[in-house]
Design a protein that fits this description.
339 residues, alpha/beta, Isopropylmalate Dehydrogenase, 2 domains, 7-stranded mixed sheet, 5-stranded mixed sheet, 45% helix, 17% strand, globular
Length: 339
């Protein structure tokens, strides 16, 4: 059995979405065992009368709630009985627990994971790697997307290695095409960090480095992994998601502006629904934190049950694929400088 903790009181739609997603994952993954952290009275009340294998679920009482504006360091010190911190401490202390999924505070989760759980051997800094759909029906991973605002070339090489192994072992992408986010495609583009990183990535045998990528090509389908600093990656992901959502809103507004457009849209209703699902981030799980000593998956704060179930599936795949040991082995071959 693979034991995974689910923080049931993180996220905008908790605890219902978290619990519904947990039960969905439990029914689809036979060797999964879940530990649900949060207010036990509420959790058990929501589970009452539901059809699930109770022998594969454990409820751990954690009555404290983390507010959106609370500082991560305060959460670690003062909210040890919160659903997130209780889960993090269990993840650290119990060898048989493989992973944790949370849709709660990003800052608190990252800080808690780094301070309490720790890094894999050889990793300088763990990094987030969310996924976005590409125009050819594939996916692309962006690493980092917010955990590390300032980076060195050595960081970028490790991000590329970790994300490449993640895409290959969890999603079956053969020889993932790795790009470096930059202001132009030519080798000499960018600041000194990007220029030095380019040379390091070109000399990294365990990845399929294909050169620089401009942000407009993110969804083109020509890349499987994009290595970048956390500031640029976060802006890239949110700008892309925001543009897609605003275009959908404008399309809907234009369709309802004229009767003939409405008739045409009715004939194309199925296609529009398929496109909406294709662009729905809820279908792509969460942003995994690559490089921690145990698996941590951060779901979007507004995750529904489908997204939570996907996050749990991600964590399960990462553990069963042996990703952590493969990352340690790969990064050990390259010199880096500890902070």
């Amino acid at each position: 059995m693979v034991k995974i903790i689910v923080d049931c009181f993180g996220g905008d739609k908790s605890p219902d979405a978290n619990l519904d997603g947990a039960l969905a994952a439990l029914s689809s993954i036979p060797d999964l065992q879940l530990i649900l952290t949060g207010d036990a009275t509420v959790i058990e009340g929501r589970l009452a009368g539901r059809d699930y294998d109770a022998s594969r679920i454990e409820v751990v009482h954690a009555p404290q709630v983390i507010g959106c504006e609370e500082k991560p360091t305060d959460v670690i010190r003062l909210k040890r009985d919160s659903s997130m911190m209780k889960g993090i401490m269990m993840l650290r202390d119990q060898d048989d627990i493989a992973a944790m999924v949370s849709t709660g505070s990003t800052g608190a989760l990252v800080t808690g994971a780094l301070v309490r759980v720790g890094r894999l051997r050889g990793i300088i800094r763990p990094a987030f790697c969310p996924l976005l759909p590409t125009m050819d029906g594939g996916i692309v991973g962006i690493c980092d997307s917010g955990a590390n605002v300032e980076v060195t070339p050595a960081h970028l090489r490790q991000f590329a290695i970790m994300a490449s192994l993640y895409m290959e072992n969890v999603y079956g992408v053969k020889s993932p095409r790795v790009a470096l986010l930059n202001v132009g495609k030519e080798e000499g583009k960018g600041d000194t960090i990007r220029q030095e990183a380019y040379g390091m990535l070109k000399d990294t045998d365990c990845i399929n480095f294909v050169g620089n990528m401009e942000s407009r090509d993110l969804l083109s389908g020509r890349y499987d992994v994009v290595a970048c600093d956390g500031f640029s990656g976060n802006v890239l992901v949110k700008a892309t998601e925001g543009t897609a959502l605003e275009l959908l809103k404008k399309l809907k507004k234009d369709i309802f502006s004229r009767t003939i457009y409405k008739v045409g849209a009715l004939l194309m209703k199925r296609m529009f629904m398929e496109e909406k699902e294709f662009m729905n981030y809820q279908n792509y799980g969460g942003s995994v934190l690559l490089g921690t000593s145990k698996v941590v998956v951060k779901g979007h704060g507004s995750s529904n049950a489908t997204a939570v179930a996907k996050c749990i599936e991600q964590a399960w795949k990462m553990e069963t694929s042996g990703l952590s040991s493969k990352i340690e082995e790969a990064v050990s071959k390259y010199e880096h400088y500890e902070e």
